[in-house]
């Protein structure tokens, strides 16, 4: 069984780890010096694209979180919600 430097994960994290592992298998990390300049450039482009995708997903999640927080603040300010109702 091959050794992986990625922690076991479920769902989306597992898919992300698989995408990285596909681009750069863990057993090849120690032999990066053996890659040609073209292979290194391709790897860098692939990892940069992956980072861009992950960052876009994170931004989208943070936008959703911000909207939820704004709605909660609005409800507390308007009196529609109050802290006492949480304690019951």
Commentary on this structure:
The protein is elongated. It is built from three helices and no strands. By secondary structure, it is mostly helical. The longest helix has 42 residues, at 37-78. Helices cover 67% and strands 0% of the residues.
Q: From the helix content, strand content and strand pairing, which structural class follows? A: mainly alpha
**Unreliable runs, pLDDT <50, ≥5 residues?**
none
Helicity level? 55-70%
> Which series of helices and strands comes N to C?
HHH
| Rounded average pLDDT | 85
* Extended strand count: 0
Radius of gyration: 22 Å
Total number of helices? 3
Beta strand % = under 5%
Overall 3D shape: elongated
Q: How would a textbook summarize the main sheet?
A: none
Q: In angstroms, what separates the terminal alpha carbons?
A: 52 Å
Notable features of this structure?
0% strand; 3 helices; 88 residues; mainly alpha
Question: How would the blueprint of this fold be written?
Answer:
Elements: H1 11-23, H2 37-78, H3 83-86
Task: Briefly characterize the structure.
This protein has 88 residues and is mainly alpha-helical. The chain has helices at 11-23, 37-78, 83-86.
């Amino acid at each position: 069984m091959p050794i992986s430097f990625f922690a076991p994960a479920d769902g989306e994290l597992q898919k992300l780890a698989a995408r990285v592992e596909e681009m750069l298998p863990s057993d090849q990390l120690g032999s990066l010096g053996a890659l040609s300049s073209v292979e290194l450039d391709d790897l860098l482009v692939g990892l940069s694209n992956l980072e861009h995708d992950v960052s876009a997903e994170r931004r989208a999640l943070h936008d959703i979180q911000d909207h939820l927080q704004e709605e909660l603040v609005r409800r507390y300010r308007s009196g529609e919600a109050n802290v006492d109702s949480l304690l019951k």
